[in-house]
């Protein structure tokens, strides 16, 4: 038997999935995707679809070569050997590339785009990490860097998680400064790290050399007392970054959106400026509990060869949202057929197919037994599919043009005309 590649999985109707594999339940995916599309629609954010493969150079420039994301990319050469290709490890660089390539900067106002799709990283398989994983995200690109952009996105995310019934989230907020104030901070940081280095982990040592800001991000327990003594970015921001951060906090207060300023929060990618944030989820996620991550990336367009442009966005791991959903989510997203039709005999079979077609034209979801089962087995199948109602059609029903509609949950039944059946099923 050939199985899925390591770090990937199938998504199926929940009745085929082990109850603890909630990320494999298609009903949960539909719930999250439709809540996301509804949130984006309400906030005037439009969909973009970019290719899954891009030139490797896009991510080398856009993500930076000294980042974890870059080291985990799936790459290959085209057969002609003329081009180096990467499976996208994230989508921000792709969206900004599309923004530049399609000349969206020529249009008035902010470009507000969202995506939902698969991303690929060659991670060591472990709990909650997949080599193909899905993200939904938003990128707001244009000439303005008003903190009103951030505030509106946080408001939207608040609605989105409330809609899904995920209540135990927390918004962690920081500013990582910009090219004016960050070099200064990094110099101070390295200075302060020097005497602490002997106490820090291997990862901290490596990052001290390659990407000192990310030392702040270390999660190793024994590093924490030392890292908590390091200088804080928010104490060293230039006037512009400081004003932006304060204005954003004031806007969140105005909207009654709770947040926690988290001085050691930095993002994994090089291109972030000013606002950096994460939303962490509650108990269901365990230690990998970041459910949304994002920030401002005012320099990215220029790095990718576009005009000077400002941007703010986030990405959210869909699998982690799925795990965070309330336990009754599959029941809420129930997608089983409204009606199952079983029949007795050849005339009833023809009658059933015609009736099913008319009901479907009215918008009702109908499953007819296609395999000619005996009645008892047909009803067992209806039960298995979770059908709300079942109809049994025989010669009597054809003659009288009235049917016995069984409510499968209540095991009650009722005599109905076709019009009455339509009225009942459409109401459900
Ligand atoms: Zn460390
Ligand atoms: Zn600054």
Description:
This protein has an eight-stranded mixed β-sheet with strand order 1-5-6-11-10-9-7-8, sandwiched between helices. Strands 13-12-14-15-16 form a five-stranded mixed β-sheet, with helices on both faces. The chain has a three-stranded antiparallel β-sheet with strand order 2-4-3. It is α+β, with helices and mostly antiparallel strands. The chain has 16 helices and 16 strands. Helices cover 36% and strands 20% of the residues.
Mean pLDDT: 92
Q: How many DSSP-defined strands?
A: 16
- Computed over alpha carbons, the radius of gyration is 27 Å
> Could you name the CATH topology of the largest domain?
BirA Bifunctional Protein, domain 2
CATH architecture classification name of the largest domain: 2-Layer Sandwich
End-to-end separation in angstroms reads 42 Å
State which percent range the strand residues make up.
15-25%
Question: Roughly how much helix do the residues carry, as a percent range?
Answer: 25-40%
Structural class: alpha+beta
Overall CATH class of the largest domain: Alpha Beta
The shape, in one word, is elongated
Give me the CATH superfamily of the largest domain. Answer: Bira Bifunctional Protein, Domain 2
Count of discrete alpha- or pi-helical segments spanning 4 or more residues: 16
User: Uncertain segments of ≥5 residues (pLDDT<50)?
Assistant: none
Largest sheet at a glance? 8 strands, mixed
- When the domains are counted, the total is 2
Give, in spatial order, the strands making up the sheet with the most strands: 1-5-6-11-10-9-7-8
């Amino acid at each position: 038997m050939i199985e899925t590649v390591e770090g990937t999985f199938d998504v199926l109707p929940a009745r085929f999935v082990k109850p603890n594999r909630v990320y494999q339940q298609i009903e949960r995916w539909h719930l999250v995707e439709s809540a996301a599309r509804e949130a984006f629609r309400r906030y005037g954010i439009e969909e973009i679809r970019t290719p899954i493969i891009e030139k490797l150079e896009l991510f080398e420039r856009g993500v930076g070569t000294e980042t974890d994301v870059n080291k985990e990319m799936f790459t290959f050469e085209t057969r002609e050997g003329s081009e180096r290709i990467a499976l996208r490890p994230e989508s921000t660089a792709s969206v900004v590339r599309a923004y530049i390539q399609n000349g969206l900067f020529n249009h008035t106002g902010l470009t507000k785009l969202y995506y939902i799709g698969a991303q690929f990283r060659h991670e060591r398989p472990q709990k909650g990490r997949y080599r193909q994983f899905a993200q939904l995200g938003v990128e707001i690109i244009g000439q303005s860097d008003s903190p009103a952009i951030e505030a509106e996105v946080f408001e939207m995310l608040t609605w989105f998680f409330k809609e899904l019934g995920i209540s135990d989230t927390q918004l962690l907020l920081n500013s990582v400064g910009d090219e004016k104030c960050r070099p200064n901070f990094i110099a101070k940081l390295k200075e302060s790290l020097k005497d602490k280095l002997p106490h820090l982990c291997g990862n901290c040592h490596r990052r001290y050399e390659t990407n000192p800001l990310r030392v702040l991000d270390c999660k190793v327990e024994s590093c924490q007392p030392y890292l908590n003594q390091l200088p804080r970015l928010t104490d060293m921001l230039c006037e512009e970054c400081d004003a932006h951060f304060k204005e954003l906090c004031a806007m969140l207060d105005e909207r009654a959106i709770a947040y926690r300023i988290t001085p050691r929060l930095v993002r994994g990618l090089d291109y972030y400026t000013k606002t950096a944030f994460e939303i962490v989820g509650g108990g269901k996620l365990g230690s990998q509990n970041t459910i949304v991550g994002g920030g401002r990336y005012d320099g990215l367009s220029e790095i990718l060869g576009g005009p000077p442009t400002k941007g703010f966005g986030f990405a959210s791991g869909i699998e982690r949202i799925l795990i965070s959903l309330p336990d009754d989510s599959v029941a809420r997203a129930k997608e089983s057929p409204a009606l199952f039709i079983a029949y007795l005999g050849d005339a009833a079979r023809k009658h059933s197919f015609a009736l099913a077609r008319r009901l479907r034209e009215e918008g009702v979801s109908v499953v007819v037994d296609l395999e000619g089962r005996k009645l008892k087995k047909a009803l067992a199948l209806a039960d298995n599919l979770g059908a709300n109602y079942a109809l049994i059609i025989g010669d009597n029903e054809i003659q009288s043009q009235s049917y016995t509609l069984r409510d499968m949950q209540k095991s009650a039944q009722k005599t109905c005309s076709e019009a009455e059946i339509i009225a009942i099923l459409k109401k459900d």
